[in-house]
């Protein structure tokens, strides 16, 4: 892990997640840059490194500037339970806010750049920069609502519907879902994907083969290409508002 105290908000393409639009001009001034430096610390992780571990004392949440982070927990038998993938423009660690410790592991699946925000400092930030604190709170609430909807979508539907839902959500996270045809890399193994989708690896393999043969997707071990967005997602009206 590498760290820097230099505020990168001024050049970050996802700064509107953390900073209200009305305050963006202040990033050109010394005062605005100091506020950014005070409430966020930039950190980098190489692929395979842990951002935090299950059981670590909770202190901070993170925003992702680049890369991809996988979250997972271990059950009593040591079995890995994959919870999700997080991409640039998303917060990380939100579901640990109400606990005194992180409830899962967070692992960089690609070389990743993050901003660390000390959650306990947000209270003091609210008294000094109420507009900024309110903006962050609303952004956190919005993402938590999306995560809940995501979790609910995987509790219903057959194996094929769950895979298509997963493709839709990852496409949404990457800002690709409105394109008719596109591709994205897959940073996890198919065995990990099967765990995330609550299905056996052989079941996932059969679904991938079926969708590939139908020409809706071209999914390999490294990437997924969506060949026809309209046909692929037409049966997912409840997810279309993600």
Automatic annotation (TrEMBL):
Domain Cyclic nucleotide-binding: 23-93
GO MF terms, alphabetically ordered: DNA binding; DNA-binding transcription factor activity
Alphabetized Gene3D superfamilies for the sequence: Jelly Rolls, Winged helix-like DNA-binding domain superfamily/Winged helix DNA-binding domain
Keywords: DNA-binding, Transcription, Transcription regulation
Domain called HTH crp-type: residue spans: 157-230
Stretches assigned to coiled coil: none
CC terms in the record's Gene Ontology section: cytosol
InterPro entries: cNMP-bd_dom, cNMP-bd_dom_sf, Env_Response_Regulators, HTH_CRP, RmlC-like_jellyroll, WH-like_DNA-bd_sf, WH_DNA-bd_sf
Protein name as it appears in the record: HTH crp-type domain-containing protein
